[in-house]
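Hi everyone, sorry if this is the wrong subforum. Our group has a chain we'd like a structural model of before ordering constructs, and none of us has done structure prediction before. Sequence below.
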Amino acid sequence: MIVESVSPDGPADGKLRTGDVIEEVNHQAVAGADDLTAKIRAAGVDKPLLLRVKHGDGSRYVAIGR
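Answer:
Right subforum, don't worry. Here is the predicted structure as tokens:
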């Protein structure tokens, strides 16, 4: 899932960048946009998300509070 934009002052601001590819949510592979949405909803609104994000040739983990 490619990040198309990041909301200013949102939880991902400064952590995700346009063009990042979200590969995992909480150590579960993401198969597409619908799968990403389902995994985010399943995590619950009061818990942070751990995303594995690819940008260019590298990957990194990013924690997003909600």
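For your construct planning: The first strand starts at residue 21 and ends at 25. DSSP finds one helix and four strands in the chain.
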